[in-house]
Amino acid sequence: MSDTHATPYHLHTSIAAWQRGDLTRDDLVRTLIRLSPEDGQLVHDVIHDLCAGRPGGGPPQGASADDWRAELMASRARTWRVPAVAGLLVGPEVLVLTDGREGVVLRDTGTQCLPASVCASMMLLCETIVMAHTALDQQELQKLQQQRVDATSTSLSEIDRIP
Asked: Which domain of life, per UniProt (predicted)?
């Protein structure tokens, strides 16, 4: 279900509310994942607005390389493909929005822009997680369909004929 009232202002307000403690992290994530697959430009605009006038920083603040790696490995992802590509990583502690050229790390304590050299990798990670999840869903669906066919075949073969 898409959030039909989503605007850059609405998303900025939601992010700011979360960072002030007026909105839960889960509510912010729900707001972002309810965006339509066609809202890529909206997400791109929000990323651009959040980074406007801020230099791209180094590694995320307060995180060692191992902590950052663990954060990314534990992330879930969402992507938007139309009309602009954008992605969301939902980690245990941070949210990352990226469009492959710009990106932001959102924490409850603030926002940090990512260096351009990292943004393409973050976008690729988003797409990889989504593709892997889709492939697993497809495998699981095929497995369930085969189980259903097997169960139906078995149960039908066990039915006694009426003489």
From this structure: Bacteria
CA pair distance 78, 62, nearest whole angstrom:
25
Pairing mode, strands 86-90 and 95-98: antiparallel
21: exposed, middle or buried (Cβ count in 10 Å: 0-12, 13-18, 19+): exposed
pTM for this predicted structure: 0.80
Non-local CB neighbours of 42 within 8 Å, separated by 6+ positions: 6, 7, 8, 11, 35
Handedness of CA 90, 94, 95, 98 (dihedral sign): negative
The tens digit of pLDDT for each residue in 99-114 reads 999 999 999 999 999 9
Single-letter amino acid code for the residue at 44: H
State the sign of the Cα–Cα–Cα–Cα dihedral 99, 34, 91, 63.
positive
Domains of the chain, residue spans: 8-154
DSSP 22-89: SS-HHHHHHHHHTS-TT-HHHHHHHHHHHHTT----SSPTT--HHHHHHHHHT-EEEEE-SSS-EEEE
